[in-house]
Specification:
With 113 residues, the protein is mainly α. The chain has 2 domains: 17-82, no CATH class; 83-113. The chain is 74% helix and 0% strand. The protein has helices spanning 19-49, 55-60, 65-82, 84-112. The longest helix is centred in the first third of the chain and has 31 residues, at 19-49.
Length: 113
């Protein structure tokens, strides 16, 4: 278990009390889930080759380039899903901001005449 103490002031990203801590915990859990899924994939790859595997087989496994690429694609999809609500909200805010600025510019141009 990693009980490393981080020195210095932590950056504060969210205004809501506790959100930074919650996001940190979610990201640690996502990291652990990703590592577990990689390990499970290793077990599945090995079982496809032979019926009986040992812990040493798992520890000594070196994934092929195809397996590495497949894992990376899975990780990218997982992260996209994990952050989908935030990504969608950000896009909606950006679109609204663009429309608000457009409307403001049109209004300013109309009142200048």
């Amino acid at each position: 278990m990693n009980n490393k103490i981080i020195k210095g002031k932590r950056p504060k990203i969210y205004d809501t009390q506790g959100m930074d801590h919650l996001m940190h915990m979610v990201m640690v859990l996502a990291q652990e889930l990703s590592a577990t899924r990689d390990r499970l994939d290793t077990v599945e790859q090995l079982l496809a080759q032979k019926d009986n595997i040992q812990a040493a087989d798992i520890e000594g496994y070196t994934p092929s380039q195809d397996v590495l690429e497949s894992r990376e694609t899975r990780r990218q999809n997982f992260m996209a899903t994990l952050f989908s609500v935030m990504t969608q909200e950000s896009a909606e805010l950006a679109a609204r901001d663009t429309k608000d600025r457009f409307d403001k510019v049109i209004e300013e141009l109309a009142t200048e005449r």
